[in-house]
Here is the input.
Amino acid sequence: MSGLNLSRRSLLTAFGGGLVLTQAGGPALAQAVFEDNPFQLGVAAGDPLPDGFVIWTRLCPRPLEPDHGMPSQPVAVTWDVAADAGFATIVRTGEVIARPELGHAVHVEVEGLEPARPYFYRFRAGRERSGVGRARTTPLAGASTAQVRFGVVGCQAYESGYYTAHRKIAAEDLDFIFCYGDYIYEGRGNRIYGSTTPNENPRVHIGGETYTVTDYRQRYAQYKMDTDLQASHASAAWFTVWDDHEIDNNWVGDIDQDGTDPAVFALRKAAAMQAYYEHMPLRRSSFPRGSALQLYRRATYGNLLDVHLLDTRQFRTNQPCGDQFNAGCDAINDRNAQVLGEAQQAWLFDGLNKSQATWKTLAQQVMVMDLDRNPGDDYGVNPDSWAGYRVPRARLLQHIRDRRIDNVVVLTGDEHQNYAGELHIDGRNPEGAPIATEFVTTSISSGGDGIDQRPDMARIQAVNPQLKFNNAQRGYVICDVTPERWQTEFKVLDQIHDRNGVLTTRAKFAVEAGKAGLVTA
Here is the structure.
């Protein structure tokens, strides 16, 4: 189409609506006269800085159709950022092109804003207008910062239940939200779950397992059409990282655990990474390059908090012991094993060494506590966690200890449970003061309604002195950070099989500045 000799404004009718192609010293742009709302996936903001943040949307009039109801042409989208929710004072505005190569997703890196204050944003396409999102810029690097309050979410299997937790966290007044991963699940639609007590899923995936860009786009669209998830995104800027289900269960490096030829799996990774970028409020620095995507990065909140966002999937060596849960084989002691890879580890160590912030957090995916998962039997670990990689795990904790890096808090997900614990080189023999503290946030929905504590976890907690708290309900975490202490609040729902779940605070724990380890708040 772009090769046609067009007049400045030529009318084209297609996709059930009117399209205007314009060409003024650039590529032909199609501006749809939409029959359906093109902003059905909502809006989002992410990766804030002192002078701005990323704002995101994707034009999707028919989200679940292969072409998402859009023409195979670029489309102009207007964006506005305002100092107030009513947009009486618009401080930045511009135009961005939604390109078909990216599923008509747009990522705008807004600049020129004031630090440490909220802003409001929206998009316009033709006569259609998106909903309004809110995002807060970060304080200037090194600026005196009295408090940072943020949430932690992740593991949101669509089929397992409703996103009540997202609706609840949207009502919190937060500086940002950290999503540790498993934003989507890649499996085929499955109406029944549970092997011993089958139940009908509250919701069902559309289609089979995801392999192509079109498959992954449809899966993201189904998730993002959920209005509770949209409210969560619109309430605050997000920092996002992935875990495994954004691509395939338990993948690491170029291995998918299913025996697929790595060259073939690379094609699936490339498709999944493109779709991930298309649907997350990420900066251009995370633009996918084939089957690779730069995800680890750092955020700074004044002189109070440095956030090191890690990628524990892309550079990791294969899980030991055949990836069998409760494993205890010799391979967990492999001296050549990697979790972060050499480059990311060097970047992290350098950032920790140079940090001037009171608190340093590792915002990542898989548990660092080396819990013994076989109480009363031979020692066994979760090989898809840091415990399955004893050498790189020890290297990380020894660096923190030997360099005397204080006030390190690790934020984790993946387990579909809440945990609070203390980190030692060897959790079976926790000698001396803790090196750091770890908080593991439960799932939004994965695992269904849940219970207060599973019987197996009560037995595991009894033989793991490093583990101070465990709970198996759904929900999220709120972290309140001040120069004096870090407080983590575990918020849980009584059920998620319908949208009327009741939210309560299950527990609060704190870390006092200068003293690694947990106290009850």
Remarks:
- The chain has two domains: 9-136, 148-520.
- The first strand starts at residue 9 and ends at 14.
- Residues 1-24 have pLDDT under 50 and may be disordered.
- The helical segments are 164-170, 213-224, 227-235, 262-279, 342-354, 390-402, 455-462.
